[in-house]
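Q: A reviewer asked whether we had any structural model of the full assembly, not just the individual parts. We don't, so I'm hoping you can provide one. Inputs are below.
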Amino acid sequence: MALSSSYDAIIVGAGHNGLTAGAYLARAGRKVLIVEKNDWIGGAAVSRSLHPGWTYSNCSYVCSLLRREIVRDLDLPAHGLQVIPYEGGATFTKDGDYFAYYSDHDALRREMARHSPRDADAYARYSQAVLRQCRFIRPFLLRDAPDPASLRPRDLGEMAYLVRKAHGLGRKELGETMRFWTMSIGDFLDQHFENDLIKAHLAGSGIIGTGLGVYSPGTAYVLLHHYMGDIDGGIGAWGFARGGMGAISAAMGRAFEAAGGTILTGAGLDRFLVRDGRVTGVALEDGREFRAPVVASNMDVKRTFLTHLDASDLPEDFRRAVGRFKIRGSSAKLNIALDRMPEFPAAPPHASFLRGDMHVSTSLWELERAYDDWKAGRWSDAPYIDMLIPSQIDPTMAPVGGHMMTVFVQYAPYDLEADGVRSGANWTDEKRAALADKVIGRIEIACPDIRDRIRHVEVRTPLDIEREVGLTEGNIFQGELTFDQLFFNRPVPGWSQYDSPVKGLYLCGSSAHPGGGVMGAPGANAARAILRDTGGSGRMKGYAA
Amino acid sequence: MTRVTHVVIGGGLNGLVAAALLARAGKSVCLLEQSPTLGGMAAPGPDGSARMAHLLYNLSPRVARDLGFAGGRWPLSMTELPSVSLSPEGAHVVVRGARATLADGTPHAQAAAFATLHGRLTRWGALLRHLAEAAPPGGLDGGALSMQGLRQMIRLGRVGLGLRGMGKPEMRAFLQALLSNAHDLILDELVDGPLAGLLAADAVRGAAAGPRSPGTVFSLIYRMGHGGAASVPKGGMGALIDAVAGVARAAGARVETGAKVARILVEGDRVTGVETETGETIGAKAVLVSPGAQVACALAGHRHFDIEATNRLRGIRARGTAAKINLTLDGTPEIPGLPADLLGARLVLAPSTEAVELAFNPSKYRRMSDAPVIEAVMPGLTDDGQPKAHLSAIVQYAPHDLEGGWSDAARDRLLKITLDRLAQVAPGLPARVTAAEVITPDRIAGETGVPGGHWHHAEMALDQLLALRPANGIGRYALGPKGLFLCGASAHPGGDLMGLAGLNAARAALEAAS
Ligand SMILES: Cc1cc2nc3c(=O)[nH]c(=O)nc-3n(C[C@H](O)[C@H](O)[C@H](O)COP(=O)(O)OP(=O)(O)OC[C@H]3O[C@@H](n4cnc5c(N)ncnc54)[C@H](O)[C@@H]3O)c2cc1C
Ligand SMILES: Cc1cc2nc3c(=O)[nH]c(=O)nc-3n(C[C@H](O)[C@H](O)[C@H](O)COP(=O)(O)OP(=O)(O)OC[C@H]3O[C@@H](n4cnc5c(N)ncnc54)[C@H](O)[C@@H]3O)c2cc1C
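A: Here is a predicted structure for the entire assembly that you could use as a starting point for your response.
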């Protein structure tokens, strides 16, 4: 690979958003270099083989949020991306029962009615309400968030778009939308349903990755953040990327390279080069330097501005605002190699929901308590788990007969408490093992033989996630999705449009609007901002423009 | 049958304000209060002591003006109290306005950061006040070109102008903080401890929320609308209630106590009056209800509300979490580390933001706090008009729906927990207690008819504020059949002794009548 010393744009980090931004820029004719500290690409959208024969989606594990505009623009299927939807899911109880979620309406209705006839009737209203919110928010994902303090035409234009959209809802519906955006998922579910198990099953999406409890205001939005995606037009549907989540990044990488871009792995950034308030390039840890008038950072906002820039290159109030950005780790993960499919004694043979997302939390109060533990610096005594066995649908993940299980865990703190001190340094190997044991104990509720099936476990604490992916404190979204950090407040007020006080330095990762998840939107939006600001010949091509 | 144009149900501060304003506007008004005394949550005890509400910090000057008090000022002599955040470790913090010191007079290490934060919150509070002093913006009923619509736009514009006047950075900070949680806002500026705890406690007083709950900054800012300082009115809350009742009566309103409304009468799609428990009917064109939308609906009959409205009313969250404990003492207790002249201050036990959050935790599961947050005051030390030996304490969190119910044993337990907690800073206090009255949220609900015995009648959460207060579709005082209005704390802008819900409701009723 022939490296040159200067580029039109350099992107720091080959997470899926960095790759998306790079691909759009390259397709617009720019000469682009992506530097990535790891020896592989993908950031938190990655597949790795840590036990011979098995492939793990180490971090993110299911796909839905990826904007279809981006899939089309970058022609990802042609570059090898295949997303297979999965159907349904279940929550298992300690006494051997379960609530199963089916995508088939009649089956779901019957199952709901088995637990509560009233809730079966309520479900249609509930899903309509969520769907309406999804429809409302989706157009905003690939647009700029306006700065309400600014009178620039672009901001006024975006503001007018927002007002028009809001007005279009009608008064009553606008009220419902405002309520939804500000309420807790617990209150929202209580308003619709009576059955604890059903509520607990639906609530999980409201807390995944979030330092809030099911009864904290704002968690209804977090649920929405997990429902606003789609697969093959099915809004809210989720699927597996064939070959693991790394397949998404790999396809993006190929799209980028096909458009003439260059990826350099094993190339950690040391610092951004800045002269007279303008970025001039990057200096790598190994001493190499590359020049470019535009540098986009795929790293989170804290790492970007507080670790890799001189304090003197930033205005003090901006630094302070970035310092206050909330990016708390609250999630852990287990990736497990199984020698064969474990038993689920409660489930009927060949139940479709075994191929979906499975849980063991049976009430909102149990979930709320799990949050209290986290607040105090402990992992939850009864954590929420989101577990799937993708190898049932995607055989590339495990050898014949074997299976791969992915188990997302909420809540585990980054700054673990020990002897009155809260610090990431408290994550010793013993603590890591104790967390894994706790989680496996939870899995046993659904599959009692799990311990006998395990061949290998990868345990990822928030500290591990920080160390490997660079996500500060292991926050999976590159920053909390609370309303004080969303839309025009993301990442910090006044800087919601990807640029920064250092001219030419942009953010293109999930710290920027519209936030985390394997969505690609921050990357695409950042590319649009860069092309707009740098003018010239390049115009972004495609739907996301 | 008696006939008036307006009946007001409930003689709390808001009901009285509404009745007085309607009467002053020339309406014939009858106010009916079920209790033998006026005042609702601010009704004084038989000896003039502060039975429930005990301090004023948010009383609206706007209401004083509209009530026609001389010079547009409340006719009350008020003593402003410093706040003391008591520390079980002994380094009590004294706050006077924006100034924080230690109890021994030495400066507080974070005085400068506190002053900046306080200044910000107060400036923002003044801004929210504009919003509080009118019906919530949002529903342009009658179209933007109606007088009402235009007035609303102007008011919004004023808030907008206020924002712009503060400059872009501050405006951005405001829009972010408004949606944030008190824990983050406070700890971004202050090290956790009694000073931070004081602010955290103020953010959640009366709420079923902890400082980490998003939206709590909004409540805190609301409280700072007038700088946030607490005052004791001379003569206690009775003086306030008497003053407003006096205006109402002088303007010709009939104000009756011991008159419980049993039914709101509805014919077709309009209210026609009320019927009291004793069978008296009073005809009226409009009825204003203090104790909440759910009560209004129950009194008028659910059949006059469509199903959607009934569902929304059912969804209103009103879990009271504040209990009131009144202690009679045989002498003034001592608080080691606190000069005697500060004993009359507002005494708060909230040693840290974290402690407030921890106190909140059990209430979520319908249990009382083991280490509650306490706001205590001995009004008699600053006001001769109130009994000397009375310590008035608001104790949080004591959930309305306590697991197992509020039995006598449970109330005793709350008293014991409270005394133990107070003894951490005032070891001699429990021995001085000669009598104790424990008023838990179930009792408050029983006495006032307010759902959940909630301080604000409905939770002050972002999804129940402004045009969404107390529920979507009834954010502008009118609800159900024509002529029915909300006038109490469950309506915008909410509770605290402010008087604005009553004022806004009276205006809405007058507008509807014209
Ligand atoms: C455990 C876990 C589970 C998740 N589950 C899901 C899920 O199921 N579905 C979903 O949609 N989302 C999920 N997410 C969230 C989603 O994966 C992330 O929000 C998203 O992948 C972030 O993408 P990004 O491109 O913005 O940033 P990142 O993926 O964080 O990319 C940043 C890149 O920058 C690189 N980098 C960091 N520092 C340097 C440096 N100094 N020099 C050079 N490069 C550097 C990193 O190595 C990384 O490649 C999960 C996240 C985690 C952690
Ligand atoms: C323990 C406690 C302490 C507080 N401390 C403070 C404080 O220190 N400072 C502060 O600013 N705020 C305080 N508050 C809050 C404040 O007191 C209330 O928000 C405010 O008083 C509400 O006034 P209101 O007029 O809207 O309703 P209320 O005062 O609740 O009045 C409602 C009235 O309606 C009457 N009523 C109900 N049903 C009927 C019926 N069917 N017929 C006739 N009458 C009926 C009730 O008897 C009652 O008098 C406190 C609240 C509580 C519970």
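A: Points you may want to mention in the reply: The radius of gyration of chain B is 22 Å. The first strand of chain B starts at residue 2 and ends at 3.
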